[in-house]
Each structure stands twice: as C-alpha cells, then as structure tokens.
C-alpha cells in the first residue's frame, strides 16, 4: 500500500476519470449523447442526486481516487452551462458547424453574457456531502464554449471568450468554496484552432482559472467515440501532432495539469516532454472502444509516459468522457484503470 497524501489520494499515480459516465436508464436514454431527461421537475432534481450517489459509489468501489460527478446533472458538457447564462437564447437554437467537423444544434448569443446565478455549485456541494475523497468538477473552457454556439452579438470570438472566462472564473471560485479540490476546463477546441490558441486561447483559459487555490486542469482531446470524431481522426495521419502546438504554450501557463489522450491514439508519447514540469493526466483508457483494457495494457500506457513525466506528476485517467458507452463497459473500464495504476505503483515501489 502506498503512502496517501493529505487529500486521501495515493501520492503516486492517483486515478481520475476525465468526465462523463453513462447515466442510469431511468434518468436518460443510455448510449446517447445529449440524451433528453426521462424525468421532470422535482423528480428530475431527485433523480440527478440519486445518479450522483450511484457514480460516486461506482468510482469508489472500482478504485478511482479523485471522484467526478460523471456529468450526471447535465445533458451536455458545454451547452448545459451556456443555457444557464443571461444573454443566451436557448429557445431559438441554430445549427452550426462545431470543432470544424460536425453540425450541432446550439444556443444563440443575443446580448451581453452574464451569470445571474450559480450553475453547478449546488450539485457540487451535494457531491461533496457524498464522499471524503478529493472531488473534481469539469467546466467547459472559454474557447470550446465560443465554438459551441451561434454568436449574433459580439462578432469576435476572442471578446466573447474573455467574457465567458470571467463568468467561468466566478463559477470556479464558488465550486472551490463548495469543496471542489480540482477544477477542470474542457478545451477540445485547442486541438483544432491552433492560431487562436496562441493568440488568445491560453490567455482566456488562464483568466478562467485566475486566483484559484484548487488544482486546475485543462483537458484537450480528440472527442467522444462518435462517428464524426472517428472519421476526423482517420484524416489525421499516422502521427497526431496537434498537441505540439498547444503544449509549449501550456507549459508556460499558470494551469497546473494537462489532460491528454494516449491509449490507442496516434499521439507520439514524447510530446509530453513539451509540458515538462506540469502534472500530466494521461488517458490510459480508450473511450471509443467497448473492449475493456487489461490492467497490463493500462500499466504499459502509463509506463511509456514515465520517460517524459516524473512519476509523482502522473495521474492515471481516461482519454475522454465515457457517456456514450454501455454502462457495464464503463464500469469495467474504471476497474481496469485502477488495477493498471496499482500494477505500475507496485512496480515502481519494488524498483526503489
Ligand atoms: Zn474529451
């Protein structure tokens, strides 16, 4: 048994998932992204809390150290946040091309954006009551928010991103006050709009994370295992070098941790060297495949990264969210992640 740090996670190779988990079938249609709720009103509020209880128990039981909400209280990782803001018209949705690859029905910005009330703070406070383990809460990143709506007011992606960053910072500070230990910003757009990442993306992200004492994470991925994404990945060639553009900028940034895809991806593992000094949340679980990894496969993926990140800076994780997977597969993948990290932890302890 390895030493545990103050927060209760193992000091070496703690495990944590990126974000979403399948919702129970009584709450939303399984294996569907943006699935509509099956409950309404008070029953929905109660159902969301019950789902949080379930995902906390599943993660704990399967050996996950830093617990997530599994996105049980939101329909979508970006639009659910946006829809809570003033200045956004979510009744009149528009279909726009997002991440430069697929069309989605999204809300429209029609005036100055503002957060009149907390979005997820109550949910996070409830999650806090369910466990003494460290908890992580994910928010969309400013650039990914801008890329997941239709803007009919600002006319500048950078200006709107900075407005969103200020709003995200308010929310993140309140999540921290509610007991959240790790605040994660999801920025899949960082793998697509490289010039914007350089010109204002990282600056907007830092604005969102400004002044937080909680650990800050940026998650950059190649998306859920849906067809539009797997088709896109097929065009990226033998080596996926997208991180090469953002990592040097993030290495110089105030963000503590970078979450990236690794297992079954074509990301050259040596790109991790570009964020030397940062904590690395490495994806050792493929979310685009229903095949459950073996603990040895997970350990192999994590071990390969150790040439480029110090062991005490490595967090074992998934490539992305697991919402679209069958529930039993996602649960078994949690177990594989924990078992693989434990295997490597033992190996490192024996080598000492
Ligand atoms: Zn992702």
TrEMBL record:
<dbReference type="Pfam" id="PF01717">
    <property type="entry name" value="Meth_synt_2"/>
</dbReference>
<dbReference type="GO" id="GO:0009086">
    <property type="term" value="P:methionine biosynthetic process"/>
</dbReference>
<dbReference type="InterPro" id="IPR016456">
    <property type="entry name" value="Met_Synthase_cat"/>
</dbReference>
<dbReference type="GO" id="GO:0003871">
    <property type="term" value="F:5-methyltetrahydropteroyltriglutamate-homocysteine S-methyltransferase activity"/>
</dbReference>
<feature type="domain" description="Cobalamin-independent methionine synthase MetE C-terminal/archaeal">
    <location>
        <begin position="13"/>
        <end position="337"/>
    </location>
</feature>
<dbReference type="InterPro" id="IPR038071">
    <property type="entry name" value="UROD/MetE-like_sf"/>
</dbReference>
<keyword id="KW-0862">Zinc</keyword>
<protein>
    <submittedName>
        <fullName>Methionine synthase (B12-independent)</fullName>
    </submittedName>
</protein>
<dbReference type="InterPro" id="IPR002629">
    <property type="entry name" value="Met_Synth_C/arc"/>
</dbReference>
<keyword id="KW-0479">Metal-binding</keyword>
<dbReference type="GO" id="GO:0008270">
    <property type="term" value="F:zinc ion binding"/>
</dbReference>
């Amino acid at each position: 048994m390895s030493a545990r740090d103050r927060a209760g996670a193992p000091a070496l190779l703690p495990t944590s998932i990126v974000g979403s988990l399948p919702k129970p079938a009584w709450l939303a249609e399984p294996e569907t992204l943006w699935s509509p709720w099956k409950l309404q009103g008070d029953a929905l509020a109660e159902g969301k809390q019950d789902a949080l209880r379930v995902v906390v128990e599943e993660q704990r039981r399967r050996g996950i150290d830093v617990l997530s909400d599994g996105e049980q209280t939101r329909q979508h990782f970006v639009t659910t946040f946006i829809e809570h803001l003033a200045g956004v018209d979510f009744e009149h949705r528009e279909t726009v091309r997002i991440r430069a690859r697929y069309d989605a029905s999204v809300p429209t910005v029609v005036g100055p954006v503002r957060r009149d009330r907390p979005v997820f703070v109550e949910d996070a406070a409830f999650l806090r009551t369910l466990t003494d383990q460290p908890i992580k809460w994910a928010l969309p990143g400013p650039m990914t928010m801008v890329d997941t709506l239709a803007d009919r007011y600002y006319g500048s992606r950078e200006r709107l991103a900075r407005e969103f960053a200020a709003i995200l910072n308010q929310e993140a500070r309140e999540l921290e006050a509610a007991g959240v230990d790790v605040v994660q910003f999801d920025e899949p757009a960082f793998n697509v709009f490289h010039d914007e990442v350089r010109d204002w993306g990282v600056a907007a992200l830092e604005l969102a994370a400004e002044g937080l004492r909680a650990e800050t994470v940026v998650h950059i991925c190649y998306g859920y295992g849906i067809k539009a994404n797997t088709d896109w990945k097929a065009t990226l060639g033998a080596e996926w070098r997208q991180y090469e553009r953002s990592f040097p900028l993030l290495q110089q940034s105030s963000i503590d941790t970078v979450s990236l895809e690794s297992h079954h991806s074509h990301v050259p593992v040596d790109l991790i060297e570009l964020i030397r000094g940062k904590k690395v949340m490495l994806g050792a679980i493929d979310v685009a495949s229903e095949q459950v990894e073996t603990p040895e496969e997970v350990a192999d993926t994590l071990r390969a990264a150790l040439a480029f990140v110090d062991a005490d800076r490595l967090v074992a994780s998934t490539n992305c969210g697991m919402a679209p997977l069958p529930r039993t597969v996602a649960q078994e993948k949690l177990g594989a992640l924990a078992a693989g990290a434990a295997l490597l932890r033992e190996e490192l302890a024996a080598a000492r």
